[in-house]
Amino acid sequence: MTEILSSVIADGGILPAGRVIEHPAWPALKDAVETIRPWQSKDGSIDFDAEGAPPRHRARDTLERVIAAVEELAPLLPHNAAYHRALVADLRRWADDGFGVPDFLDSLLAFQPAQGRADGLQHLVVFPMYTQNGNPNRNLEAVVLRMVWPDWLAELERTRYDNPLYLGLAFEDFTPGYDTNSAVLFPETIAVREAPERFTWGGIFCDREAARFRRVSEAAVRALGIELPDDIRDMLADQRRCQEAFALWDMVHDRTHSHGDLPFDPFMIKQRQPFWMYGLEELRCDLTAFKEAVKLDAEGLAQARDVQYAVIFDRMFRFPVTGERVRNYDGLGGQLLFAYLHQHDVVRWTDNTLHIDWSRASQVTNQLCGEIEKLYRDGIDRPKLVHWFKAYELVSTYLAPHPGSVWAKGPDALDLSRPPRKLVDDVLPDEFPLSMFYEALAKKLRDVVASTKGITAGDDSIRAAA
Question: Is the predicted pLDDT of residue 422 greater than 90, yes or no?
């Protein structure tokens, strides 16, 4: 793949935006995939005895349309040649096996986008998969995407923030699984017979994150009467700036899951923990990105200050009011950041106006990062349950627990004869409810947040709908 990619670049062949999706085979591929989707069960199979199921020959004919479109588009993407060959084989095997639970392990292993990261390089991806924060079913999906990998970001990854699996991505077009809130492309979401020994890439759509951030932030600024410094106002008006800020933020965040003094499996795989533990882990990674952005800002990297604004605004204004309140660990992290800044006089809600002391924002945000890092470092010497209680103590120092919480009453209120994972059952679905401030803000932003479903960088109404 590396040799093919080098040839493509040398020939000036990095595909311009729109070329793949402008080919007539792309709408034909989308139409065929969207025809198949309603026939699929949750696990991706087609139950031909179910009401509304197609005749077997129609399912096979429709799948042949998918294959024909992939084969027609494949020459536009020579760097994906091995993947597209494996994809066609997996599609045909799915049909030959009677459209049971799909197994696309061979094509997943053949798809190696992290081996050739180049800014603007496009990929055509077709997999049966669920879309995180989107469609929970393993439907067939088709996505055309391009890499966001500017030279300055590539140099930072090479010299300071090694993350060989990370992909900064932007949408070109997609099937309905991505007409959702999903902003990631992860290999673990794909239907396979067995998980690979290791995953070799992970993609985040920084264009969607940036577009969503801009729309919600501008609405929050108006609702709260915030006076913005000129550089923040200019940033919110610039999709490219925001997109590059998210690319850097995500790259540092992603690697942080496996860096630092970690008392547990960094990704908490196959572990059952109280949701505030996940909230602290995600916030730790975001605040580490913030801390690194402060350093890079001092060194003169233009995008670094934008990362600081993005972390504070997205965490404070979008995260707490997005999604259901049941075990909303990202929302919890946003609430904690706001409460910490508020209780340290960096933000003040006075006369129905939110004031932000930007001169102290970096210092105090880094201070919260330090408190979480100390919790982790001390946790190495603590039993799991003690670590959970210490984490609860940190969060509840700044956020009021639900008055009916058993955990808030301390260890004596819990049956400690049970294993820790069973004590998770005593955690309330909304252990740390929204404050009165956030309840009011949620009402003001509800429609705006809902309007960001499926948003892309090309959405001309990003500002108008805010």
Answer: yes
Neighbours of 16 (CB within 10 A): 11
Say how far residue 392 (Cα) sits from the centre of its chain. Answer: 25
Q: d(Cα 451, Cα 466) in Å, to the nearest integer?
A: 9
CA 432 to chain centre: 23
C-alpha distances out from residue 158 to 153, 206, 271, Å: 9, 20, 32
Q: What percent of the chain has pLDDT over 90?
A: 91
Q: In degrees to the nearest 10, what's the CA dihedral of 175, 179, 182, 184?
A: 40
Q: Quick one: pLDDT at residue 6?
A: 47
pLDDT in tens, 134-154: 999 999 999 999 999 999 999
pTM of the model: 0.93
What residue type is 214 in one-letter code? R
- 439 alpha carbon, distance to own chain's centre: 25
pLDDT in the model for residue 270? 60
Strand 139-147 vs strand 122-129: parallel, antiparallel, or unpaired? Answer: antiparallel
Q: How many CB atoms lie within 10 A of CB 419?
A: 11
> What does DSSP say about strands 353-356 and 139-147: parallel, antiparallel, or unpaired?
unpaired
CB count in 10 Å sphere of residue 20: 21
**What are the C-alpha distances in Å from 131 to residues 103, 139, 145?**
17, 9, 15
Q: Which residues contact 297 (CB under 8 A, 6 or more apart)?
A: 304, 305, 308
pLDDT at 94: 98
Confidence bin at 343 (pLDDT 50/70/90): very high
Q: Which of 237, 224, 233 is nearest to 443 (CA)?
A: 224
CB neighbourhood size of 123 (10 A): 23
Helix (H, G, I), strand (E, B) or coil at 265: coil
State the pLDDT at residue 264.
75
Burial group, residue 409, by CB count within 10 angstroms (0-12, 13-18, 19+): exposed
With a CB cutoff of 8 Å and minimum separation 6, the contacts of 197 are: none
